[in-house]
Amino acid sequence: MTKRNIRLAMTVLCFCALANKANAQFDGGTGTQTDPYQIATPAQLAQLATYVNANNATYNDKYYILTADIDLDVAPYNTGAGWTPIGKSETSFGHFKGHFNGSGKKVTNLYITNSYGDDAGLFGYVNLCTIENLGIENVNVTAPGWYVGSVVGTASNSVISNCYSTGTVSGQFGTVTIGGVAGYLLDNCTISNCYFTGTVTVIGASLNNSCTGGVVGCVDNHCIVSNCYSTGTVTHTNATSNSNCGGVVGMLYDVSAIYNCYSTSEVSGNNRVGGIIGEVALSCTVSNCAALNPAVKGTTDIGRVIGKISSSILTNNIAFEGMLNNADTAVWSNIGANNLSGEDISKKYIYDNPTLERFASPVWTSKKGYLPGLFGNTVEMPEHLRLEGYPFIAPITLPNGIVGTPYNETLAADGNDITWTTASGDLPDGLDLSISGVISGTPAVKGVFHFTVKASNEVGEDTLNLSITITEEDDDDTRIVETQCIASLRVYPNPVNYELRIMNYEGEEIQIFNIMGQALLSFKPLPSLEPVIDVTSLNSGMYFLKIGNKTVKIIKN
After folding, report:
1. In this predicted structure, which of 7-16, 29-38, 375-384 has the lowest mean pLDDT?
2. Which range (20-24, 180-184, 426-430, 532-536) has the least confidence?
3. Burial 40-75 (b: 16+ CB within 10 A, else e)
4. Following CA atoms 60, 195, 256, 316 in sequence, which dihedral angle do they give, to the nearest 10 degrees?
5. Ordered strands of the 407-410 beta sheet
6. Is 404:473 a contact under the CB 8 Å cutoff?
7. What is the DSSP string of 26-46?
């Protein structure tokens, strides 16, 4: 080998060593869109902050993905000043410009007690960035800097989507902008499908203007907030500064927009206080939002949806009619779908319209008796919106029947003085539904019958789609036959009331059939687990549990 070739080989080896050393800082990947750097530990997440804050061009604009949940309740991230945000303030140019995919994982116990410049959050300052699919739980952020959030302090020209956070975000003294998810959105940003549950508080802000929001503090210059919500409290305590305090956004400014958002947060501040937004100015748009707050309180410029507005458009916004004001009454001015206090809606309307006529799938998940939620979940109805005595029908799978054999099954629902009727479809010939909720009679013909029942009282009504299969007595080909001998498999307890457990399970498919051979449940747990099956939804009676080619008869009490 020539000296030139030796030098070349050594150069390649050195380059590879440096590359491997860099990759070792993460859990894998090369930082491309198809092969992002993988982050699985607190140290690896902190390494990203180190690279970005040093303005390292090799790492600050790459692709990253969380491959595991990360708990930051370990030293040095849970002591002293706490976590060092990823991305420094605007003047330092140590911005995060990359793409961060939480991949449905979560970061827990984020703790910050210092500002690290003007931006505090898991991410400090981001620009030309994407943050998505990330959960941050049990945050504790207390910072005196200008822009404070849980996911990000300041975002410019960036996209934040499918993120949530829970916990406490607070600012003190010099804080000017604070939000549950993000402090400040600046210049062509979007935030969508995000929520915050917890407490957002500004204590003693020393500046004349501040912005406090349940999701975002300030939204400025061609930015969009959509499909977001907040629950908890939003509070600004300084009695001398403009608080710009809102359940979703503190201040919406300069050709920005917010739509399809809601808040159940109790909101209080000095002036410019609203259930959705504190102040809206300069050609902004607010549409299809729902102020479901228990109370919105302040001194001046207060509204159920928006506290103060100038040169902007309001469209099709609603507000809970029982929301309290500063005088602890529900008397508000400027009521109307296109006005500051929105159109009146009642508790009954909320129960009868689970989507609130604006929070529809596929983004939102809705269910009667709950508020719309994100990521396939609904939101527990808060105390101030609960409607006592509403007739919720208990979920049920009706047993099938046999021609000529008497049938009797009782439906159940919450609430008092309920009247049952058939809303649509037909019961099997020979069966009737009584006003007390009993399906009874003697089936006359075989077949599958689909119908909808309705439970009504003076409070409201609920419906449920049901079906009953009627067979002939000699239709034995649909039935399941119990395996006579199973040496190792153990199913217990049997009879069962609540949970059925399986010992010596070997990873085969598990199915539960009724006596007519209809599959009611099917799943396949990992072989290493002892399966636990919730059978509370099954009616009392006999069923067959099939595991692979083995079948066991079970009795549900």
Report:
1. 7-16
2. 20-24
3. bebebbbbbbebbbeeeeebbbbbbbbbeebbbeee
4. 160
5. 407-410, 438-441, 431-433
6. yes
7. SSS--SSSSSPEEE-SHHHHH
pLDDT digits (tens, 9 = 90+) for 219-233: 999 999 999 999 999
Cβ–Cβ contacts within 10 Å for residue 13, how many?
A: 10
CA-to-CA distance for 525 and 57, rounded, in angstroms?
A: 45
236: tokens are 């600004």
User: How far apart (Å, rounded) are the C-alpha atoms in residues 53 and 505?
Assistant: 51
Supply 460's token pair: 């409201």
Q: Are strands 211-213 and 177-179 parallel, antiparallel or unpaired?
A: parallel
Residues in the chain, overall count: 557
Asked if 203 and 245 touch (Cβ cutoff 8 Å), the reply is no
Average pLDDT over the chain, rounded to an integer = 88
What confidence category does residue 173 fall into, taking pLDDT thresholds of 50, 70 and 90? low
What's the chain's Rg over C-alpha atoms? 29
Q: Which two tokens stand for residue 346?
A: 């009642």
CA distance 271 to 244: 7
Secondary structure element (H or E) that encloses residue 523, with its range: strand 519-523
Quick one: tokens of 12?
């390649």
Q: In whole angstroms, what is the distance from residue 425 CA to residue 453 CA?
A: 9
CA distances from 257 to 129, 160, 276, 283, 381 (A): 20, 15, 12, 9, 27
Sorted by sequence, the CB contacts under 8 Å of residue 362 that are 6+ apart come out as none
SS3 384: helix
361 phi and psi, to 5 degrees? -70, 160
**Alpha-carbon gap, residue 555 to 496, rounded angstroms:** 6
Q: Where are the alpha helices (DSSP H) in 85-132?
A: none
Which of 66, 207, 197, 84 has its CA nearest to residue 134? 66
**What letter would DSSP give residue 48?**
H
CB under 8 Å to 118, separation ≥6 — which residues?
Answer: 89, 90, 125, 145, 146, 147, 153, 154
| C-alpha to C-alpha distances, 77 to 51, 94, 101, 497, nearest whole angstrom | 17, 20, 21, 46
Tokens of 381: 């109805």
Coil, helix or strand for 282? coil
Q: What is the dihedral of CA 94, 162, 45, 12, to 10 degrees?
A: -80
Structure tokens at 108: 């827990």
Integer Cα distance of 210 and 177 in angstroms: 6
CB contact at 8 A, 314 and 274: no
**Do 482 and 551 meet the contact criterion of CB atoms below 8 Å apart?**
yes
